[in-house]
Design goal:
Layout lengths: L2 E4 L1 H17 L3 E5 L7 H10 L3 E4 L2 H10 L4 E4 L8 H7 L2 E4 L2 H14 L3 E6 L14 H8 L5 E7 L12 H18 L5 E6 L3 H5 L9 E4 L1 H5 L1 E2 L4 E2 L8 E14 L25 E7 L11 E3 L5 E5 L4 E4 L12 E6 L1 H8 L5 E4 L1
Length: about 350
């Protein structure tokens, strides 16, 4: 069975680096745990590191957080589905919202449960995912301030999540101005302006984050240590917190070009023949992981001589290149991962998860 290893010491290093950086700049922050897909061992590790606010987009994962430590603040970070309202109020201390009718249901459920549920209103800033349009914001707030059982504790935005719109100083200034406008008009304090995410961290290091942005939500950079603006390692952080290992189940020298009439494979792909490969051979390894677990674009072999040829549902084919003499059947091939690939693997019941 293929397995993931998450390294405690490297995760601790990245957590402490971020904690120091954000506190030094006067910013509160929360860990986004959705990558871990509710794995109790890994979530406990986050809590043991000191995480006191955890964000997730699955209410079942927030339930795990509360089971481990009820005192950890939990935030549901997408607009709630109506059918999930009861559990969101039960397991999430706060939620991101964009619809008045949904907030009204949260209000009613919070009163039933004898709670105050906190809401953060997400504002559309150009990436065209979730968010109230700026022109509608004041009317929107005027309605929700009248509801009982809820407390408006923040405004926020998401950038680069759908269409790749990058954060900028101007966009974050605009978010801060929305907060000031709301506070002035309604005489209500909005404690959080949560405009910081992994992709805005490089701006923080360059002192480009407006003072009004006082809250960050960090997931990808914590686990992968990357500067998402420049697509390079984030100086001072570890990029090898998580690795994948898969076992070789076959090694054979085979032609580079398939033999026979070609048609689309089950994935809908048609093999394109490179004329220079006719008559050429290569040592191919098959490993015990496939498209059911991960898309090959998100895998990075640690051995630079190895290249990925392709995959079927449960097997992945590698060209061992000049490294073929190093390997035998039963050996493990190690991979670094991109974020979306790791997300798939953590969500797979077929991949063992280990804490090292």
């Amino acid at each position: 069975m293929a397995f993931i290893e998450l390294y405690k010491d490297k995760l601790k290093h990245n957590y402490q680096f971020l904690d120091t950086l954000l506190k030094k700049n006067g910013k509160e922050w929360a860990v986004v745990s959705k990558l871990l897909c509710g794995n109790k061992i890994y979530i406990k590790e986050l809590i043991d590191l000191g995480a006191r606010e955890i964000c997730d987009s699955r209410v079942s994962n927030l339930k795990v957080v509360k089971q481990i430590n009820p005192n950890v603040e939990t935030v549901y970070i997408k607009p709630p589905a109506k059918r999930s309202i009861k559990n969101i109020v039960k397991y999430a201390d706060a939620s991101f919202n964009t619809e008045f009718e949904t907030i009204k249901l949260l209000s009613e459920e919070a009163l039933k449960q004898g709670k105050i549920h906190r809401v953060i209103i997400m504002i559309e800033m150009g990436d065209l995912r979730e968010g109230v349009m700026g022109d509608d914001l004041l009317d929107f707030y005027e309605q929700i301030f009248k509801l009982k059982g809820i407390q408006v504790t923040g405004i926020g935005t998401n950038l680069n999540c759908l269409n790749g719109v990058l954060p900028s100083h101007d966009k974050l200034i605009q978010l801060s101005l929305y907060e000031q406008l709301i506070e002035t008009k309604f005489n209500r304090k909005i404690p959080w302006v949560t405009g910081g995410t992994s992709i805005t961290l490089p701006m923080l290091k360059k002192n480009q984050i407006p003072k009004g942005i006082n809250h960050f939500r960090i997931g990808e950079t914590l686990f992968f240590g990357n500067d998402l603006l420049e697509n390079i390692p984030f100086k001072g952080m570890r990029q090898d917190v998580i690795k994948l290992f898969a076992e070789i189940i076959e090694i054979t020298e085979k032609p580079k070009v398939p033999v026979g009439e070609l048609a689309e494979n089950p994935s809908g792909d048609l093999f394109e023949v490179d004329d220079s490969d006719y008559g050429e051979m290569s040592y191919r390894a098959i490993i015990d992981i496939g498209l059911l677990d991960i898309t090959t674009d998100f895998l990075i072999p640690e051995d630079g001589q190895i290249s990925i040829i392709g995959a079927s549902s449960d097997m992945l084919i590698l060209d061992l290149g000049k490294s073929y003499k190093k390997y035998k059947v039963g050996d493990l091939i190690s991979f670094r991962l991109k974020y979306m690939g790791a997300l798939s693997l953590f969500n797979s019941d077929y991949i063992e998860k280990r804490l090292v």
